[in-house]
Structure prediction request, 429 residues.
Amino acid sequence: MKRYALLCALFYSSIFAHYQPTDANLAARQSFQEARFGLFIHWGIYSQVAYGEWVMENQRMSLEKYEQFAPLFNPVKFDPTEWVSIAKAAGMKYITITAKHHDGFAMFGTQQNKWNIVDGTPYGKDVLKMLADECHKQGIKLFFYYSQLDWHHPDYFPRGRTGTATGRPSAGNWPDYIKFMNAQLTELLTNYGDIAGIWFDGWWDKPDANWDLSTTFDLIHTLQPHALIGSNHHNTPFEGQDFQMFEQDLPGEANREFEKDTKISELPLESCVTIQKYSWGINLLDRYDATRSTKELIADLVGAAGRNTNLLLNVGPLSDGTFPRDAIERLKEMGQWLDKYGESIYHTNGGPLSPRSWGVTTQRDNKIYVHLLKWKSNDALWLPLQNVTQGYYLNHDASLSYEISNNGILLNHIEVHNPYDTVIVLEIE
Prediction:
């Protein structure tokens, strides 16, 4: 399968050699990279089951059985104002939400089939339209997640690596599925105002298929030239894509098997992680300790920024349209930390020092931010940074003891210990 993926990557690189991003697209890339922090939302009729977004596949459900959950999905407590306000208070600059996941169910009022929230549920309203309107109102950028994989559509044929237990007939017209997908993308980029980008997933299910990506990418860039395209395919980005993403991992870490052969591109980078440890969609059967601590999540955010990468932090809402209480608490605490230390994260680049055992560095203009994530003693810390003129703790009255030489700076007796991240500012010439 990896050989197929490599061959396909080479193929798509060759056919997209003509792609030239517009000035609007390049400006959007820069803005995206400076945002640093976004909210990922996995929400669909799988939330009714509350056993994760892969429940259909993991439980080997037939279409007949899975379709029974749609008439039960009635998120009467969904409040887009509250959702966007929570994201803003957390310090997030954009939201990425599942418009269609692998189960093929559209969380918007598509005209391409009836398998959607407007036609297939008692709720009968387009939640993406309400969310888009609120994002525009509050100044939050909106991305749509779209699964190229589809366990429901009859023309997703031949079948890929997943979705083999659905009971669909062994037949279908693949080109018709591509037309269906492009028609839905046209709706998403036409009916919901200004959209920041499309976040693809599922290509990996059939890496040897003729996806005709040139047509799809040209469609997106034509409808909204500034919109960014990313794909969670675990390969170096194809030409035509505008940012690179890493799933449950940071660039260069390769802690996940599917990221081990992924090369880091020069495009803007994003790492998506979950608040729950085991699922993206809400999973009430997760153990009590499944919600990760604020300290862990801030370490993810800081670690990403130190690698010149955005953090896209996922929440799986409940079927009634509300966020889990523990997720709200974590986001509130992260927002409080960013209120005080956000200047060391937003509009920064990865710092001059590579990630170390103690933490990372970020930089903006003439300021280098030293993030001590794992520093519990008063020991001195030597940093090989030249042209430092002064150093101090960020937003703390304590005096920093240091010695500057031609080869670097020695931080003496670091006495301030933030429970999440001790931030030291070094100004350079």
In short: The longest strand covers residues 94-100.
